[in-house]
Write a structure and sequence with these properties.
This protein is mostly helical. It has 18 helices and no strands. α1 crosses α2, α2 packs antiparallel against α15 and α10 packs parallel to α15. Bound molecules: farnesyl diphosphate. The site of farnesyl diphosphate (FPP) has 18 residues, from α2, α9, α10 and α15. This is Phytoene/squalene synthase family protein.
Length: 359
């Protein structure tokens, strides 16, 4: 959207408050993160994430035909493009017929329905914030459109190889790493060497978090969204066709691919930790905000190793509420030097039962 056409938020404070409320409903990860950041970074990340989440909701919608989904994602990209006349209102008009009826609308779809409000609030942020968010958000939306088109005939995504899984994770989460890094490096006075170092590992942080989700959500991704992210080549080695990924007779075979995916994710832990060791704490950015998802990923990987089959049956793989609480508390209490010790402790046993939490 060109600058001249930028709508002013009519009730900026109420709109911003609405956006903060909305984040609490759509993402457990970002609910914690946004709460743990200080202002103004908290609002920058809140809006940046909501913009990305709209694309994600369209991409996950299996009630929309793939060609229509791809067209919506491309229109969303155009609405973000400063050089294009397409507006959030145009996108809202196009997505309108696909919105679930108001009473049945999930929080994700309420955010999509309120795209104009999200954009108006986003437009009220400083220009350098918008310039940090828009390119990665556009890369995400167009990457998602490409994937939806690639698998249009399959009815849902069917990742084939390890490298395709990595490519997919880059578009849906690596781009978020870039978005965060754009914000913390352009708003802070960060030297070139540190900036380069951060970009080199930001993508790995996103890949880590997304691969953990891929490994733990096998059942729901297939039954609720008709997507199989476990690579066909890995499943084939276990004799499992992608269409039978959650069939009871394939439980063991699929579980071993879940473990393999968790191992793949583990390979990105060092990169994510390097990010945490160097991320600049500027404009309300806090170390704890990013330490929390990192340590929760470590805990989820531990649970995945212990019970990979639970990702297949739908029983669910997650760290307990008590452990989340203990991790959040520890992330607030400790600095960068404690990261290796916290990681090691959480990798071996649930954190709230570990002796070191009583330190
Ligand atoms: C540099 C850096 C910090 C990179 C990390 C980038 C990042 C946070 C990517 C988001 C990936 C992700 C899987 C979020 C959680 O899922 P979700 O939002 O779908 O919701 P859930 O938490 O409810 O599963």
């Amino acid at each position: 959207m060109p600058d001249a056409d930028r709508p002013a938020a009519t009730h900026p404070d109420a709109d911003l408050a609405w956006c903060h409320e909305a984040v609490q409903g759509v993402s457990r990860t970002f609910a914690l993160t946004v709460d743990t950041l200080d202002e103004p970074m908290s609002s920058y990340i809140c809006l940046g994430y909501l913009v990305c989440r709209i694309a994600d909701t369209v991409e996950d919608a299996d009630h929309i035909a793939p060609d229509e989904q791809a067209a919506l994602l491309r229109e969303f990209d155009a609405a973000l493009d400063p050089a294009d006349d397409t507006t959030a209102a145009d996108f809202r008009d196009s997505v309108g017929p696909h919105l679930p009826p108001e009473r049945e609308r999930s929080e994700d779809w309420q955010v999509v329905a309120n795209v104009e409000r999200v954009f108006a609030t986003f437009e009220g942020l400083p220009p350098e914030v918008r310039e940090a968010v828009v390119p990665p958000a556009r890369e995400m939306a167009t990457g998602m459109a490409d994937f939806v088109e690639r698998y249009a005939d399959a009815g849902g995504l069917r990742i084939e190889t390890r490298s395709e899984l990595e490519e997919y994770c880059y578009y849906v989460a690596g781009t978020v790493g870039t978005l965060i890094t754009n914000l913390v490096t352009t708003l802070g006075n960060v030297d070139e060497e540190r900036t380069e170092r951060l970009y080199a590992v930001a993508e790995e942080f996103g890949l880590l978090l997304q691969l953990v989700n891929v490994a733990k959500d096998v059942h729901d991704d297939y039954t609720e969204e008709n997507n199989v992210y476990l690579p066909a080549e890995w499943l084939a080695e276990q004799g499992v066709p992608q269409e039978e990924v959650v069939a009871p007779e394939n439980r063991e075979g699929t579980a071993s691919v879940v473990s393999r995916t968790a191992g793949f994710a583990r390979g990105f832990l060092d990169g994510a930790q390097t990010y945490l060791e160097h991320v600049p704490l500027v404009e309300g950015n806090t170390l704890a905000a990013w330490t929390i998802p990192y340590l929760l990923a470590v805990g989820t990987l531990r649970e995945l190793s212990a019970h990979p089959e639970r990702a297949v049956t739908g029983e669910g793989v997650k760290v307990s509420r008590e452990e989340v609480f203990a991790v959040v508390t520890a992330a607030h209490q400790h600095g960068r030097d404690a990261l290796p010790r916290l990681r090691e402790s959480i990798a071996s046993e649930p954190f709230h039962t570990a002796p070191s939490t009583a330190d």
